[in-house]
Amino acid sequence: MSTETESGIDRAHLRGVTVTAIAALFGVAAAVGSSVMTAGADPTVAANSQRALEVVLLAILVQPLLLKVVGLLKDDFGVKDFLFIAFMTFSMWFVSWGVLLSTGAEIAF
Asked: Which one of 58, 61, 68, 108 is CB 3.0 to 4.6 Å from 39, fit for a cystine?
């Protein structure tokens, strides 16, 4: 195929899938973290918690550093890439935390 390299894997595609998977996992982890931060609170109060929002913002800001350490962050990483990571992380957090809030599941340590 024209998109394959000598090793048979398109490196750009593999990088994109990896970045997407990391962003999705960080979003779910942020939802669990938000649930832990608001454990014991009424769901309507928890939904308005500033701490829960801080958890997802931290998850978004940590990812470029992690990607740089792992070696997935190249010199061509720009605003578009950062916005993609922010969107994917926030979307997964929003859906996952919404499910946790609506089911009344509590995750406390």
From this structure: 108
Residue in the block written with tokens 């994109």:
16
Q: Environment class of residue 9 by beta-carbon count within 10 Å: exposed (0-12), middle (13-18) or buried (19+)?
A: exposed
Using one digit for the tens of pLDDT, what is the confidence trace for 57-79? 999 999 999 988 888 877 777 88
Helices (H), 1-109: 11-37, 43-47, 50-70, 79-103
CA distances 77 to 6, 22, 33, 41, 67, Å, are 25, 16, 27, 39, 10
Q: Are the C-beta atoms of 28 and 96 separated by less than 8 Å?
A: yes
Residue length, the chain? Answer: 109
What is the three-class DSSP state of 9?
A: coil
CB neighbours of 5 closer than 8 A, spacing ≥ 6? 11
Identity at 18, one-letter amino acid code: T
Output the six-digit token pair for 42. 């009424």
Under DSSP, is residue 75 helix (H, G, I), strand (E, B) or coil? coil
Residues 19, 26: Cα–Cα separation, whole Å = 11
